[in-house]
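Slide 14.
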Amino acid sequence: MVRKSRYGFSRKVFSRVQPCYNHFNINNGGQNNEEPVKFVRLYSGTDGQSHFEDLNPAQFAELQPAEGVIFRDIAPDQNSEWHNAPRRRFLITLSGSLDVTVGDGNAMNFGPGDVFLADNLTGQEHTIHPKDNWTRAIIEL
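Slide 15: predicted structure.
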C-alpha cells in the first residue's frame, strides 16, 4: 500500500529519503501506523513574530536552485537559544528528532523524513531542543 499525504502525493515523490520512513513503521498487530511527513515553513510574520506554516510539497516538485548541502549532527544537550535562521535553508531530519519553538508560542517536533524551511531571517526568533542525536541535511538556498 502506498501512503498518500494530505496533498495526495505518494511517498514515492520523496524516493530519495525513502529509508527515513522506516522510523515510522511500528509493529502494532499488523496495522500501519506511519505518520505523514511534515513539510513546514518557519517564517517571520507581519506581526514580527515567528510562525509555522504547512507547505504543499507540490510547490517543490521541480528542481530547486541551491548553493550547497551540509550534513550535521547535534547532541541532545546542545540546545539552541533564541536565534534567527542565518540564511534561507531547508533542514531535513535524517535521524533523531528535535522540538522547535517559535515566537508565537507554538512548538513542533520534527523526526526522520520531516522537512522544514527556515525562512525567519528577521523578527522574532526560534529555539531548537534536540531530543536525541539529531542528524540533518541542510540545503542552503
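Speaker note: The longest strand covers residues 68-74.
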